[in-house]
Design goal:
Mean pLDDT: 93
Distance between the termini: 1 Å
Number of helices: 3
CATH superfamily: Peptide deformylase
Radius of gyration: 16 Å
CATH class: Alpha Beta
Structural class: alpha+beta
Number of domains: 1
Shape: globular
Length: 207
Amino acid sequence: MAPGRLACAVVSELPAPGTVRPVTRWGEPVMHRTLQPVTAFDDELATLVADMVATMYAAEGVGLAASQIGVDRALFVFDCPDDDHVRHSGVVCNPRLTLPSGDDRNLDDADEGCLSFPGAFVPCPRPDWARVDGVDQAGAPVSHEGTGLLARCLQHETDHVYGTVFGDRISTKARRRLAEAQEASAHEFPPDWPVGISAEPHEGDSV
């Protein structure tokens, strides 16, 4: 997911960044199907997670799913602020999403962007609170919840695990605006983007 710049405290830690990989774009089959569950918590997974962290930071995102670097595995990484400007970060494999319902459900119609459709943002209504449960890269149970951009990020990244992009959740008119904005900025994002960019932690706003 794609972010905004905020001064934040940090909760949790991610592994050290690995190698920056090209971001996979919408339209590639891996972006539009349910991903395979993570079953092996080994060195290969550790390398994948480190490369996902590096790619997320290089692309100045707040979250990244494995499918966004072309890998068919059900996991994502994130480093994202909540409504209180506290940064939360982590690794979630095989995520399960919980959203409010009934009177507790309030929609936030803020702008949303995606690193796999870079340079474009449009409003996308989503619940203003979310929780994700799963396991980390070592297989240990994890649970993350929050409000604001963090809630949006957790929903956006879990969507990727199940083959949904946020363009699937907006109107036809909004999708046209999104496509026009992306086309106008496409020259800024070559096919191997963000390879060659430093993978430094930041406060971003795309996923």
